Amino acid sequence: MKRAQLIGFSVALVAAVLAYYVASVLVRPPAPIMVEKKIDSTDVLVAATDIPVGEIVNEGSFRWMSWPEEAASQTYITKKRGGAEMLHKLSGSVARAPMLAGEPVTETKLIKAGQGGVLAAILPQGMRAISTKIRAETAAGSLILPNDHVDVILIRHVRDRSGQDQNVVDTLFRNVRVMAIGQQIQTKEGKKAADVSASTATLELTPRQAEMMALANSMGEITLTLRSVADLSTDPARAGGLDFKVKDNSVRVVRYGAKSRVYGVN
Known about the structure:
19% helix, disordered C terminus, Type Iii Antifreeze Protein Isoform Hplc 12, single chain, 5-stranded antiparallel β-sheet
């Protein structure tokens, strides 16, 4: 290779290396700048483990967790707001709602001794809890669990005009919530059926429906039919199966293949 060619090749190689270096410097992203920001925190009382409905809690059921102060709700129990004294005060309370481990504890989720039972605590305002007898064949084979929704059917014997006995079926209420099966008020994890020995189901009804339910218990046999979870979005105002008439304060019940009956509700 001639000397002139060798010099030209060397110059080109140096230029290429220099161009690569300049390009890499220009393209390389700038080094991240770490900015340390101090966030005020506070100790919030949380559940130490999962707490189911109805469980009696003690001081060991809770623990303190560091929480951003600006994210701590006023309903949370914190050390700065007399938390140590409140922790002792809550010992012996009953959980009125399930709490997950690490979930902040509030006074509304617990009920203290002397303030009523667990069922009264979870019953919505203005509603009533009333029980009815059940068997496996009248409660979907004991597959109905707390918080399921059911239709309430009354089967009773009546005597027609000719003096013959016949069975009459009336749907009393539709889409009502089951609050308890026997003494069970919450579905245990992995449990697929209620206790087969349970002989009662407790339903959530309005005061007027509770009166009609009490009457129906003395008139015949009650059967509960399980509803799909897709029906839970039904308008609560139309949850009752009875058609309330505003003008004459009556209830119309439609039966299969039979003339409608009208019952007064006052």
